[in-house]
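The passage that follows is intended for readers who have already worked through the single-chain material. We present the inputs for a multi-component assembly, then the predicted structure in tokenized form, and finally a short commentary. You are encouraged to pause after the input and sketch how you expect the pieces to fit together before reading on.
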Amino acid sequence: MAIGRQPLRPAADVGLLQRPTWTEGLVSWLTTVDHKRLGLLYIWTSFMFMGFASIEAFLIRLQLAAPGNTLLSPDVYNQMFTMHGVTMVFLAIMPLGTGFANYFVPLMIGARDLAFPRLNAFGYWIYAAGGLFLYSSFLLGGAPDAGWFAYAPLTSLSNNPGNGTDFYMIGLLIGGIGTLVTAMNLIVTIFSMRAPGMTMMRLPVFVWMMLVTSFLIVFAFPPLTIALLQIIMDRTFGTLFYVPEAGGLPILWQHLFWIFGHPEVYIIILPAFGVISEVIPTFSRKPLFGYPVMILSGIFIGFMGFAVWSHHMFTTGLGPVANTAFSITSFVIGIPTGVKVFNWLGTMWGGAIRFTTSMYYAMAFLFNFVLGGITGIMLAMPPFDAQANSTYFVVAHFHYVMGGGALFAFFAGVYYWFPKFTGRMMNDRLGKVAFWFFFIGFNIIFMPQHFAGLMGMPRRIQTFEAGIGLELVNLISTAGTFVMLAGILLILANVIQGFRAPKTAGNDPWDARTLEWKTTSPPQHHNFDEQPIALDRDALWAEKYPEHAHPDDASAYEGMDFDQGGIHMPGQSWYPFAMAVGILVASYGILFHNFVLAAIMGVFVVVTTYGWAFEGVGGHHVHPNKTATEGAHD
Amino acid sequence: MAEGNHKNHSIRPYVIVAIVLAIITYLEFAIIEYEIPFLGQTATMWWLILMSIAKFVFVIYYFMHLKDDDAAYSGFFWSGMVIGFGTFIAFSFLMTAPASLSFVRTQLAPDGQFVHGQHAQSDYGHKGIDEATMASIESDGYSRNLSSVFDHTRPKNQQVLFTPPAAATSGWTLAEPETAVAATPEAAPAEPTAETPAADDVQAQAPSAEWDRELGATTYTQVCSACHQATGMGVPGAFPPLAGHAPTLVQVDGGRTHLIHTVLYGLQGPIVAGGMTYNSVMTAQAVDDEQTAAVLNHILNEWGNDAELPDGFTPITAEEVAAERGLGLTGADVHEARQALGLE
Amino acid sequence: MASQAPAAPSAAPAHGWRSSKLPDIKLLMWIFLASDIMFFGTLIGTYLIYKGRSLTGPYPLDVLDIPLTTVSTFVLLMSSFLMVIALDALRKNKIQQFRLWTFGVVFFGAIFLGFQIYEFNHFVDLGLTLGGNLFGSTFYVLTGTHGVHVAIGILWLGSILVSSYIRPWTAKDEVYLEVAGLYWHFVDLVWIVIFTLVYLVDFV
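Having made your guess, compare it with the prediction:
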């Protein structure tokens, strides 16, 4: 058997850096490989970036409050909307999903950690490095200003001589490495670390959606990486990929970007679907309606996600045959999405619904997402798209999907899982007040933008003329930001209050269905004292209410000792952090054309790779139930 | 389970596969190096692709053990292959055949020739669509004007993936593409029958002396290529092609003047070029008389356009350009004049 | 990508339940390879789309040398063959043979890389540069990325070879060699495609 083998070296501390064993303080966080700590790091970091992006959005709305406003110069305005988009997509919403996955996938499948804990740590640090790199552009010569999709030839050296574009290209490139390795890690984890009895068709839907998302990442990020590399080569080494004068085709960038970009939309929304599929059944006290169909629709959405990219390019002259084909595939993808929406409604139908804050967000998700979905179907028609393309109608559409959809779903997740993170309960009443501000504010901002778009207001404009009928819609939209801001402040107050609440949550405050609620809140380092067993689909419910489920016979597992010799916990390591720092510094080397520095850091990265490999997985064994297990053996 | 098998596993299959791979590699080399007389270009291409697929499959099934290994590995790998292959086939199709309708129609033409206007017209008849309806369909800027698709041959380098470089004939002469050599014997016998060879030579060489080629090329790069692209192909749907289109303009009386006006005053309104309808704005260009003449001659002689020029065509001169200045036309006026000439 | 390779020692705990009999690290490698298909798919797609769009020479027919590349293709194929032989030897616990064949892989890989360096130098002499024309840009970036993969493979297998002298490798360690081998074969697969689509079809 190839499994269960000793590492290359015994777990003794060999290598350049001594294996750290801090359990508290800064070092323990820098060297942690614990999936729960990394999950929290992801979530906190993405909320930090979301804060930055919100400030940028706020400035954009203030600038557009009145015609002819001069609060932001066109140049600064370009940087603001570019960084708002880049941050929200790459640094906030997508890592938020990854953070939830990090924390809950192992807990939900009854595992003790991810398959490759150090790779997981590396994934986080390189994502953080990418974000830091992108944001350092504000201090080092201007942020990227070519839009979040950075269409060529706006990014060519002659059109965009500043450093901003380089920051965008290299920042996304290194951030993408982190996303890729984490996705691969999750696939292996879900494949080989499920609890006994946890067959694929018993996996919680969130885990299923993360599996589909991870495959999407694995297949969608490489085209982006190569496209970024081509621009970096163009700008740094004078290649001609996107130089029209030499025969290069700027349209190629659009294709490569959207071959990545459309799956990226599902990379963001599928984890959100997963969260909703956990929240709604729990608070409806009913199993998810149509579980297998939900899974299959998720897979189908993921697969079709690769076949629709050109609907972002209807107006680039692809010709009627291509436009028709991509219009049809875009319509087709609405079917599984509709199936999902009806299944969520079917889950609530006849359920004993508890209207908690989390459930409020889940239902608001349904409302917003259906609105965004319908405008999406409208935009999938090439003739309509030709009219609405690059107007505020599109802006409204994708904010309803990304913000009103994915973000609301993740907020539902935060309220749902906060007791598990902390062991404390958030104030439900304050949460609901905050929710109404947030929800109404969101709709006040983005609903009028549909009409602004239909009246012909283009995207990405720094200001607009008076007297063409755009004043009122923009003023309403800007006014909405203050309502939403109040909502955000109330949510912050709610979170702070939550952290000060007493630890009264207990293991399972919501009477929930999945295995993460079986362990303590917050979960101890090794997650479960005893290896959990999944006897039915909603594993915890099957355990709590066997009379309502049809669980397997538990006696089949009786007397089996899954944790013989103790639970193995991997050792902490400096190398993931060191490697990420090395790559970060090397990136600055490439950006400032200091290739000596880049080469030195390249060697440093190779050295850390060797250190990593020869350090081995290490770790120790814990024996939470020592007396109990011994008793069983005797 | 696997280890027990490995103990007694013979390496003979690996040796056989290695030998087969070596032989296929030699065959690939041989088919190229010693042009096999009875294989045409297409057949050779297919044999090459088949042989590399065979090598690919041998390596993946035997060397990478996918044949006997767990199905999960195959699942991962082939899902990557399917998505990758599907995506990039579709993507290559979109990039190389942007005018996809005419691409399909051209393929359907039975004799491999481009169908001409009359046939296309009768196509409408079959479908019971009258011309007024067709005109309204065509006016949206997205659908193509079918009749015009077949009036002009499409520029060669836009159709298929594996064409030799279109620009290979200009300048670089280290080695002639073999395809070009192969084409000459067919073309050679046709030459003597076409008028007098001597006159042809004079005509082919005459223009070179009469305009500043260098100025034409640099002006094109600086002023025109941003929209019409260095290849002269434009951007389908946005900027019309000049390759294959510009010479059709000078075949009409007044076409020369129209070309000059387009540069001096711009052009605004729906036009048809290369089988596609365009409806956008070209602004008046800030170029002097010398540059205008040089760049127009450059356009009319580049990308194989020179072959389609009418007989006895003389290069446009700076004096001609100077005479057209100061007329105070707008882009819309130029478009009107264009339609008056019978050009679409 | 460097991080992929020697991150090898699996985190698989020595004990505990697994829902799959497959080694984690081998699963990881296959997923990485599936992802790498998309990397090279994009590079090859770009190359094919830009084929024939270069405005100035040199063009593929002017520089590509089929006999030379056939030899280097053959060398890479044979290194792939030695790779399976080395794995087979390790599985049968024939350590000396395993070292010999692994050395063979590294050696052949280095020869291939040598050919490529020679080829690049030669092409630059012929006037084909990174920023000279589109063919230069696409060709160097495509084959250069492949060359970097080969170099990482050489480093990886070389490290395995060296480590086999430091600490004994036995049949138990088979999966670590197998994973390196999968990577190596994949590099070979990519070259099979590049050899056909970049080199041979131009001469049809």
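Commentary: Confidence is low (pLDDT under 50) at residues 99-128, 136-209 of chain B. Residues 100-149 of chain B form one domain. How closely did your sketch match?
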